[in-house]
């Protein structure tokens, strides 16, 4: 180093326009250590920064093309300098658009036309302490499709948490085994706690009734894709959210993301006691968006562009309220036909409860082109590939990594898919 260590580090802080705290987090060291590197060489307490750290700064934090710092999507969504995805609060409108551009670049892979190996050698820890089918499998499949491998654990019973191990210990230990983790846990805030014990990226796969950021990203990506086919724009559109809006974490994250758009009319309709929390309604009441609590489903459905139905999260009830979700809350073909437009889309994060008497989203819409739920679930793969590529800093390598696939698949994935194939 021609300049002193102190000058070098201060120039990094200046060029990246970040605080010392953020630089420490990016380097994975505590502030005291960084402070000792920032002292003058003849001061008491001065420590020499390891060569590996200097190399990391030059290779990963500074762009070596003159003094220009390359815009990095990973940096713009970082949380306290760390590359976790814990909440949709980490996005603004620009980073969201950039995120969707990366997602678009993953489409040839999720459609099984191309393969990529940009995550070859990397290992994902898929840690699910709560029930999951789609989220767990699609995160795993997304990682494998980028060339990585997956290790997972499901439920408390088969993990050392059943022996009383803390979130901190579990996280620190897992961080030594894998390169990135997806964590689902029944307590709100638990995934953030998990992320504080490790410098490797942690993705929130659902923290109790808190948030489900990857689901909201794929929901919004679905709305964006369907709207572009229908020639509509998200700004100024009408959305209704129906069902358990209190415990449904997907609607919490989605409502927050929608608030980044302008002039939306959002209607909410839920059984008494299962209303959307006030803090989320207040968060989303910006940019000229209008949020309205409806007193009947028919009123909420009138002329909307998007119907978003959710399952009642009985597993989170203190006292099960079996009767709270009656026919008045059910989205079915007759309600959609009588109140909605030809180009309305019907969404649901799934699973839907199809048991008799459940009154969740009806299966009588299965052959209606407006039902977007399976196209929505399919979008989980490119969205989750984008999350991994961005958090691990390889999103810029995708285009040059694509190769043709060697195998072939049936033309339609599902037996009812042929009418949708043109979409
Ligand atoms: N799969 C979604 C979630 O994990 C929705 C649900 O379970 O109802 O939140």
UniProtKB/TrEMBL annotation:
Looking at the record, the residues that make up the Aspartate/ornithine carbamoyltransferase carbamoyl-P binding domain are 84-224
Q: Name one GO biological process term.
A: 'de novo' UMP biosynthetic process
Keywords of the record: Pyrimidine biosynthesis, Transferase
One Pfam family from the record? OTCace_N
EC class name: transferase
Pathway(s) of this molecule: Pyrimidine metabolism; UMP biosynthesis via de novo pathway; (S)-dihydroorotate from bicarbonate: step 2/3
Q: Which residues form the Aspartate/ornithine carbamoyltransferase Asp/Orn-binding domain?
A: 236-390
Superkingdom, natural source? Bacteria
Recorded GO MF terms? amino acid binding; aspartate carbamoyltransferase activity
- Fetch the InterPro entries from UniProt: Asp/Orn_carbamoyltranf_P-bd, Asp/Orn_carbamoylTrfase, Asp/Orn_carbamoylTrfase_sf, Asp_carbamoyltransf, Asp_carbamoyltransf_Asp/Orn-bd
Which reaction does this enzyme catalyse, per its entry?
A: carbamoyl phosphate + L-aspartate = N-carbamoyl-L-aspartate + phosphate + H(+)
Stated EC number for the protein is: 2.1.3.2
Which Gene Ontology CC terms are recorded? Answer: cytosol
Which family, according to UniProt?
Belongs to the aspartate/ornithine carbamoyltransferase superfamily. ATCase family.
For this protein, the record's PANTHER family field holds: ASPARTATE CARBAMOYLTRANSFERASE (PTHR45753:SF6), ORNITHINE CARBAMOYLTRANSFERASE, MITOCHONDRIAL (PTHR45753)
Q: What does this protein do?
A: Catalyzes the condensation of carbamoyl phosphate and aspartate to form carbamoyl aspartate and inorganic phosphate, the committed step in the de novo pyrimidine nucleotide biosynthesis pathway.
- Protein name (Swiss-Prot/TrEMBL): Aspartate carbamoyltransferase
Instruction: Look up and give the organism this protein is from.
Output: Candidatus Kinetoplastidibacterium galati TCC219
